[in-house]
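User: Here's a chain of 112 residues. Predict its fold as tokens.
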Amino acid sequence: QVQLVESGGGLVQPGGSLRLSCLASGFTFDNYLMHWYRQAPGKKRELVAVISMFGSNTNYADSVKGRFIISRDNAKNMVYLQMNSLKPEDTAMYYCSGNGYWGQGTQVTVSS
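Assistant: Prediction complete.
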């Protein structure tokens, strides 16, 4: 069955960095766009970044442009989100999504 498993979240100080990973299984990974979403408490889920099937095109929410980088490794069925210059407002549960499926999420907390 389809599975998306995120990892890499945690507690980080403002200005710090984290790298999220998502391992996909159960579908032909390079046939699909892959996305990172986030949802903060009391807020709607928002699209953070999207990457094309072979990684040649990416797009980002305005709030993370210049700080976050989405990438993928089709040989490993992995998608990544490198998050730099983190801010307290980046605190949220981060979800990987593709082929209409979602992972369980990984918590990112930015706090001093």
